[in-house]
Amino acid sequence: MAPVTLADIVSALGGELHGPAELRIARLASLAGAGADALAFATGERYRKDVLATQAGALVVPPALLDAAAARGAVIVAADAHLYFARLTQWWVARQRTPIPAGVHASAVIGRGVQLHPTASIGPLAVIDDGAVIGAHAIIGPHCHVGARAQVGAGTRMQSRVTFAEDCRIGERGLLLPGAVIGADGFGFAPDNGTWVRVEQLGTVWIGDDVEIGANTCVDRGALDDTVIEDGAKLDNHIQIGHNVHIGAHTAMAGCSAVAGSARIGRHCMIGGAASILGHLTIVDYTQITSNTVVSRSISKPGQYSGAFPFDDNASWEKNAATLRQLYSLRERLRALEKKS
Amino acid sequence: MAPVTLADIVSALGGELHGPAELRIARLASLAGAGADALAFATGERYRKDVLATQAGALVVPPALLDAAAARGAVIVAADAHLYFARLTQWWVARQRTPIPAGVHASAVIGRGVQLHPTASIGPLAVIDDGAVIGAHAIIGPHCHVGARAQVGAGTRMQSRVTFAEDCRIGERGLLLPGAVIGADGFGFAPDNGTWVRVEQLGTVWIGDDVEIGANTCVDRGALDDTVIEDGAKLDNHIQIGHNVHIGAHTAMAGCSAVAGSARIGRHCMIGGAASILGHLTIVDYTQITSNTVVSRSISKPGQYSGAFPFDDNASWEKNAATLRQLYSLRERLRALEKKS
Amino acid sequence: MAPVTLADIVSALGGELHGPAELRIARLASLAGAGADALAFATGERYRKDVLATQAGALVVPPALLDAAAARGAVIVAADAHLYFARLTQWWVARQRTPIPAGVHASAVIGRGVQLHPTASIGPLAVIDDGAVIGAHAIIGPHCHVGARAQVGAGTRMQSRVTFAEDCRIGERGLLLPGAVIGADGFGFAPDNGTWVRVEQLGTVWIGDDVEIGANTCVDRGALDDTVIEDGAKLDNHIQIGHNVHIGAHTAMAGCSAVAGSARIGRHCMIGGAASILGHLTIVDYTQITSNTVVSRSISKPGQYSGAFPFDDNASWEKNAATLRQLYSLRERLRALEKKS
To answer: May I ask the CATH class of domain B103-305?
Structure first.
């Protein structure tokens, strides 16, 4: 990789440079991990102490930290330093990483009638079933499986070992991490005299543009209608999305969260890690769910909702948890006292 | 696919037809998603309004909804409309889907001494290890791995990317979804002066007939005895079954639930999503566990058991959660007041 | 496998033999599952009844159980019977299992510049990317993917279908179970006017010696610095380790637990199943977290911490949970009464 100077960076990404334009940057680093060859960033006032202590050759900071940062070396000032650094990491990676070559690896297995854009890349030991459509510059990594008639939009990347089942569709610039399973059958059975009779899942999964789906996350196909994930949604690892769920645009879900069947989550929501959304609920746009919260009713008013049990040392928890099982009767006793007093 | 008429459907599946037998059905759909070419279903009274509003060409309903459904078009009446529709989806899929051809894909890797029924299908890039036994009409999908001496019953299907480890056995008509891992080593260690010494897991997994196991679900092999999943059990996605667990027949477990080692769950139980069953417990037949419940003691009486923290707006939760950490002392204070009064 | 006698076992592993040295052992078994051909073990006094009832041909017991065990047959006495049996299972497996041959399977795909030790084994349909380094006696199983420049230490085994991403490193004698994903991108985004801008994850994962990682467990790569798992740590299945987490040496984590980004867990900790550690926390060495606990603050004092909601029959839970939402006001009412009395 050619050397990068601060001038290269501000030329590509903007920002106000204070310091030597010709300073070379060998890597991006955290404030604590940076040396003289590194560029680091600080997002705000609470990192002032770390800014003063870092060994970084240069810093990206918001205007409020310019004084502290400039006192110690080169600085790029950006109104939103976090956003600037995010874009910088993308620019950096685009320069640094070897591009994955277009074409089909000799070991891949390609079905009949596959529409494969000539700029797309199919990795080693991938399987593309009959009639699938793979868009321009899409990348299907090693051990991925794209089912029959599935459609993969331009620039979408399946890193490795992704299952993208038959008839499912994903838009452009998507990213699917290893182990993700898109379009497995939803969990649907009719009871029959003590046994379960399978309801075949006839819907598919529809995913918009700019969606990211984490490692080992599952998005089930719909029972009759489709499961939908709108544009710009970001799903972390180990997430379970049940059949016929609808995730609104630009909603972000942290790891190990789960949404049961037919729930409808609005746009611009933030769902914390290991949170559960029960089935058939509706959650309004701009709702935030704290991690480990069980959402058991619909939410119609935006805001933050929580519900984790407060942890404690084991002895205290045991006493409080035991008492919690008598809580209703405690309330009754309190009422009785109130009446007497 | 040949066109399907209502006559074809009642001829195959029974039910009482009210309306034109020659009406053609192009797809099965939800009440809301159906058009004139579609057949939809309603399970009971609470869907009366949806029945009146649907655009479906025909409906499957229970007797109680016949009046509403017949007022608007063709109807099939079935005593249990959900069960009827479940069977209809299976019949539909059997007609519609291209059957997977028998035989071994050229890219699959087959070990020595494998007993492969001539009607079985081994998909692209599957690996079948030495001595495995694959039954009639079994389907081993792309990227699946069947370990040495494993036994797969007739009609059982591993969709894709399933790991089915050495010496494990599954009965007939099973279904394993992508990413499932059957027979990985259980988590067993002996402490040794601050380090952990591995206990090799010498048991296997034994799975009965008609069992379904969801995407990315793990069923660990036993330490010495086997982990057992009896006939007809249905496991959703992202489930963890620890070593030496025993799941009774026809028990259904929803996504993200977990059962720790050596627990024994009865028959006909229903375990809600993200519920946890701790190790070495016994749960009696016909028990229902609400989602997100932590079962920390054995259950000897059938019924429904629950234990999720009720969620609230964040400010209310914070106040209540903080108070919860003082609950035992509140009880003591209440007692003191009661003595005084 | 050659027959094993009790003499062979004590010769290899020590222990004090009471009984016929020439007794042949055909298998290791649980107390309940053992027959006359089996060796079983009991760890302590609470298994006395099972010791008296077992059909095992021989037993491994601690000194306290010698009397009971000797009254019924052959015995090996070991100060720590659990540890003895753990070592015995390893010795047993080493004798019993067919060793996996060194060399590269013809169907594997090997990149350029891979440094492959001649004693290493690369299984069918594995993919090893450019510049990866695979140590002596390492085993890369079927469908595994080792990314570019990744380093795998001597004796480390990836069972099957493991993703070990580019530039990640693991030490010696590690074990990675099927479906594990090491080095997927961490979940990092900068908000930009209602959308999310990806922060490329430039760190890697560094794993020490003697580490085990369970089936379908994910360990994300760091954002700028590395995610670290120190020597001897043991991770069960379905675990989520966020970017830049640090897990101390010999810490054990049970299934479905999760650690959010940048948390730091000490050495010799035990994290229960389905426990959650929130981001950026520090947990001191020798901390035990009970299963299903949400750790929302740092822990500076070793000990056991808990926080699961106590489950109950559904009707009781409903009353107590409803009351819990009024807990703070109950406290206020109690205070008011106390002031009056």
So the answer is: mainly beta
